[in-house]
Write a structure and sequence with these properties.
The complex is a heterodimer of chains A (452) and B (472). By secondary structure, chain A is mainly alpha-helical. Chain A is built from 19 helices and no strands. The two termini of chain A are 27 Å apart. By secondary structure, chain B is mostly helical. Chain B contains 20 helices and two strands. A two-stranded antiparallel sheet of chain B has the order 1-2. Chain B is globular and about 70 Å long. Classes of the chains: A mainly alpha (452), B mainly alpha (472). At the A-B interface, α16 and α17 of A face α5, α6 and α7 of B.
Chain lengths: 452, 472
């Protein structure tokens, strides 16, 4: 709760500081605000916040870990994307504070205890993103992406609201605990509740970008600036998946026979459609968008079990996925991949060993090769689900072989001895070194989770 | 633990040192690893398991991270460290040895292999098993033939699919057990419906890596596009990982499924024996001859392991060691041909024995060892294996025995066409000191093992019969 306030105030301050047109000052304020809120979330157990009376948001250890992950990713993205935001000196602070406001939404979405807060969080998360996607004003693709995301997103929101209204009609409450009690005791009107569940699941699948509601994904990812794309692929996705987990594996767990069928289909389709479509892409961001659809499919495995460890497994998986995505996007920015071509990565790993190392680590982690974090994430998720959903797990393994092929092609491309670029060595700024270093630690340290 | 740390540290250091030192550095590293392994051999009691790493607690999800080795593991460790030394030595005067990336990757490969041979935890075994794929892939990619991407993808995806099947099998197996440690997995008694499937999960991984017919299609192309060191590491060590996995992991853990998988594997192995040999006879590329020959040899070993009798496994172990040594020799000989003449087509070669008598002699020695003539290690190994196959089923035994005849045909054909006849070349540089050294070392090892195979059989006996206790 404190962290939320700190982030919001930091955003406001940086808006005012932005008038001075000193980008490094803005960066300093935002970074220190994020670090402060990160630390606040860490120390939460030791003291009671004065705001703890407000019970629409509740943070226990799981929520704290997830919101820390969201803050950490945002910090990495702000640092990694500073080079890009700095170019437009008029608006640097506007963009950065929009990211922070969106992060506030993500934290609300992680900590909500009733559906009112949930809806509020989702909207605070989404609205800045609608703007951010369109900040490349001269770019047709960016404008298209922004408009497309806005319209489809509002439509999904409307469906979600409809679902929430029906849920209220069925159980007479917005509070998650009350709803769960009502479901458990059977005091609800059945068809209304079930329809509400379907509406909410559809809206969720849209927000996390899972098949069959994934069509906006590649277009929006392609049009958005690199950093905004990475923000959508990591922070937005993790908040939405966690809220999904909390609602469905928590509140609606007693109706799981009803919704697991629909979810299974969405998972299978996401796993295969994502990777298979990604194989044919030439645009780097579209490739990343499709592979993120498949990774969402993996993340949704956490919903299939009600065991308490599923949130932890999801956390490991999302950390690995987020670090890999941020590292790849940062590398793409380092090499000035404005044409957004996969071929632009050719040979950069061989010429720049550090970039090559980070790139190999992130791609291998995405394909789930041990001993990287991606492997442990997938391993935890799948071994939780193996008892009830053996066939789903086998299909997931098959799809991860397809994914491995996809990522392997990129590894091979980046390690090629000959290159198409004329630049011998790319300059890497200190901030980017920090981002890549932190990501590498995140990718290599997955086994620590098991030990600690 | 120093067994594993040493190659890893040397691997990391190799990235840092200047390139001009890398080959000396490589030799020092490999020799010290071998010394450490020999140090472990002295005073090793064959019936004990020596634990080298034990955190003494079970981590979440039942991971135990235990490491250790018994007599079988120790033999494989010695083999790995010895072969790595020979591989580095045979590359001594090639361009590749001066590249520090190469030295580093070989050490990382050695690290992964030693991990596979010492893992006492199912998931740790899988982690190291997958880890070995990365260095070998990079060796093949950076130092192999140009434009070999499709081949490499095939190799990588094939083996990865197999490994994923093994991972699924391990997770299902682990769900019956309290932890993934080897002792706990041994105590699992599987329900009838599961055993067969779990075993086939393991088997898919191993069959692709061995490679067993019909999963062999990645192998010849990968071998022929690989650099010499890559081929040697693949055939001498990486394939042995799969056979080791069959003996130590698949059979003891899922012995309930043996009945349903025994015949398929033995039949596939027997088909592989004949099929590999027949194709090898028709090949013109000398590296492909040896690639198909290795399908034939390994089919015999795999079928022998599936018999699951102590003496068949002893024969298989002798043959595993022997095949590693022979394949290093054969691929070195093949690469010398390619290196000096620029071609591997045997019909473009001829009369080399006259131009380079030393090379002709040592190549012949390795070829004869490959034919399993008496006094070489192969003789004992194949003899035991074929004898066991006969007592299992007569027709299988007859099919297996054809390996002796067919092996003679393709080996001698390859040797005769390239080395004898009218010279088609004007000059051929004879062996360099390091190549002579490798050949001499291999010959001594092959003869010593051939003459004293009883020692090895006795050394391995307790651990091999320990793997059989669970047979129900």
């Amino acid at each position: 709760m404190d962290a939320l306030i700190v982030i919001f105030i930091t955003g406001l301050i940086s808006l005012f500081v932005g008038m001075l047109k000193k980008p490094y000052l803005t960066l300093g304020i935002i970074a220190s605000g994020l670090v402060l809120s990160f630390c606040l979330q860490m120390n939460y157990g030791n003291y009671t916040s004065i705001f703890s009376k407000y019970d629409n948001l509740y943070f226990n250890i799981t929520q704290l870990y997830f919101s820390e992950m969201a803050i950490g990713f945002t910090l990495l993205l702000v640092l990694g994307g500073f080079q890009y935001f700095k170019q437009d000196i008029e608006h640097t602070s506007d963009y950065l504070s929009l990211l922070l406001f969106s992060l506030c939404g993500a934290i609300c979405l992680i900590g909500f205890t009733d559906l009112f807060m949930f809806f509020l969080g989702l909207e605070i998360l989404s609205i800045p993103i609608y703007v951010m996607v369109g900040i490349k004003k001269q770019d047709v693709l960016s404008a298209e992406a922004s408009l497309k995301y806005f319209f489809t997103g509002s439509f999904a929101t409307a469906i979600l609201l409809f679902g929430i209204a029906l849920l209220y009609g069925a159980t007479a409450s917005f509070n998650l605990a009350t709803i769960q009690e009502a479901i458990q005791s059977g005091s609800y009107s059945e068809p209304m509740l079930l329809i509400a569940l379907l509406f909410i699941i559809a809206a969720f699948l849209f927000k996390v970008g899972a098949v069959p509601f994934h069509f906006w994904g590649p277009d929006v990812y392609q049009g958005a600036p690199d950093i905004v794309m990475a923000f959508m692929a990591t922070v937005v996705k993790l908040a939405a998946v966690f809220a999904f987990l909390k609602l469905y594996a928590g509140t609606f767990q007693f109706l799981s026979e009803f919704w697991t069928g629909a979810l299974n289909i969405a998972i299978i389709l996401s796993l295969f459609l994502g990777y298979l479509s990604a194989l044919r892409q030439t645009s780097f961001k579209r490739m990343l968008a499709y592979s993120s659809i498949s990774n969402t499919g993996f993340a949704l495995f956490a919903l299939l079990t009600t065991s308490p460890s599923s949130a932890g497994s999801l956390w490991v998986f999302l950390v690995a996925y987020g670090c890999a995505t941020i590292a790849l996007v940062t590398i793409s920015m380092i090499i000035h991949n404005v044409d957004d071509k996969i071929a632009a990565f050719k040979g950069i790993g061989y010429k720049n060993p550090f970039i090559g190392f980070v790139m190999i680590m992130s791609l291998l982690s995405l394909s789930g090769i041990p001993p990287l974090s991606g492997f442990f994430g997938k391993f935890l998720l799948l071994s939780n689900a193996i008892n009830d959903h053996l066939y789903l797990v086998i299909l997931a393994l098959v799809s991860s072989a397809i994914g491995a092929f996809l990522y392997l092609r990129m590894i091979v491309l980046s390690l090629a001895k000959e290159t198409e670029n004329t630049v011998e060595k790319y300059p890497i700024s200190i901030l980017q070194y920090i981002v890549l270093g932190v990501c590498t630690v995140g990718l290599l340290g997955g086994w620590l989770i098991i030990i600690l | 633990m120093e067994l594993l740390i040493l190659p890893f540290v040397f691997g990391i250091l190799s990235f840092i040192i200047p390139s001009s030192w890398s080959r000396t550095f490589g030799l020092i590293g490999a020799a010290s690893s071998l010394l450490v392994a020999l140090f472990h051999l002295s005073g090793f009691e064959p019936q004990t398991v020596r634990t080298i790493f034990d955190p003494n607690r079970t981590f979440p999800l039942g991971l135990s991270f235990k490491m250790g080795f018994d007599a079988l593991g120790l033999v494989m460790i010695l083999l790995t460290n010895g072969i790595v030394l020979l591989v580095l030595l045979s590359n001594w005067n090639r361009e590749i040895a001066k590249n520090k990336l190469f030295t580093a990757l070989v050490f990382l490969m050695q690290f992964g292999l030693l991990g596979v041979f010492t893992a006492q935890d199912g998931i740790l075994f899988y982690i190291f098993w997958e880890f070995t794929l990365l260095p070998i892939f990079l060796i093949l990619y950076w130092f192999g033939a140009k434009d070999n991407n499709p081949t490499l993808f095939k190799f990588f995806i094939y083996t990865l699919v197999g490994s994923l099947a093994m991972l699924a099998a391990l997770i299902v197996l682990g769900s019956f057990s309290s932890s993934y440690s080897y002792e706990d997995l041994r105590q699992v008694s599987l329900p009838a419906g599961y055993a067969c499937w779990i075993m086939s999960g393991f088997l898919l991984a191993f069959a692709i890596k061995i490679p067993l017919f019909p999963f062999h299609t990645w192998q010849p192309a990968t071998y022929s596009s690989a650099p010499m060191a890559g081929t040697m590491l693949l055939s001498a060590l990486m394939l042995k990982m799969a056979l080791f996995g069959m003996i130590k992991w698949m059979l003891p853990l899922t012995s309930e499924g043996l009945e349903c998988m025994r015949w398929p594997v033995i039949i596939l192995g027997s088909i592989g024996i004949v099929y590999g040999a027949l194709i090898a006879i028709k090949q013109n590329d000398i590296k492909k001859i040896f690639a198909y020959a290795s399908i034939s040899h390994l089919g015999l070993i795999a079928a022998g392991i599936m018999l699951y009798t102590t003496s068949a496994m002893q024969g298989a172990m002798i043959q595993i060691i022997n095949h590693s040594l022979i394949s290093v020799g054969l691929f070195l000989a093949a690469d010398i041909l390619e290196n000096r003449t620029g071609t591997r087509k045997i019909n473009e070669l001829g009369g080399i024995a006259k131009l380079a008598p030393h090379y002709g002699f040592w190549f012949a020695v390795i070829v004869f060892a490959g034919l399993s003539v008496p006094f070489t290690a192969g003789f004992i190994g194949e003899f035991i294996l074929i004898k066991e196959m006969f007592s299992f089923h007569m027709i299988i035994g007859i099919v297996a025995a054809t390996t002796l005849v067919l092996g003679a045909v393709y080996m001698l054909r390859g040797y005769q066409v390239s080395m004898f006849g009218a010279p088609k070349l004007t000059e051929f540089q004879d062996l360099k000191w390091n190549e002579t050294f490798v050949f001499v070392a291999l010959t001594i090892l092959i003869l010593v093992i051939g003459l004293s195979s009883n020692c090895i059989i006795d050394f391995l006996e307790p651990s091999l019969s320990n793997y059989q206790v669970t047979l129900k």
